[in-house]
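Run Copper chaperone NosL through structure prediction, thanks.
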Amino acid sequence: MKRSNIIMFIAALLPLGLFLFPLWKITLEAPQYPIPLGMYIHINDFSDVHPHDIKNINLMNHYVGMKYIPEAIPEFEIFPIGIIVTTIIGLLIAFKGNYKWFLFWFILMIVLSSAGLYDFYLWEHDYGHDLDPKAIMKFTNPDGSVMGFQPPLFGSKDILNFRAHSYPRLGALFLALGITASFIAYLIGKKNNKKIPS
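Sure, done. The structure for Copper chaperone NosL is below.
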């Protein structure tokens, strides 16, 4: 088996780390919470950083009219299937394909990952802006418009007296390493192909 194919084989397996480790983490810091509230976003689930964090976030958000963080969303059924299917495709390419197919898998994963991030952004936007008009507490911007409470997609952001942080975790690293490795496999395969006399 060629070295480029071996790297492609490893690249196809790396995204499976999403089933073992969290994809993303959102943390909320505030003076009234000595221990910040936080939640992990997995490929198929939400989970607490500390016991009862999601419950406390939901209770807090209820006062400003935000929706409860659900136990499940449709993406939790779609994303795992997507990772399994793309892994199988990647393994087939590693065994049967040439370096040009490695680039196909790389582009496919970039497109799907970008679509996943965009979907995450849309979910956050809806979560932070689709507020209950009957909320106990209502906040407005200086221009009089209703204040949104959307957490950042990436980075940190002040929301009232909270400091929200949103960063990828180990599962996202496994995905990124897999995508990067597939491109390296393509470059090595392309280089080796040029050395073969026609």
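DSSP finds five helices and five strands in the chain.
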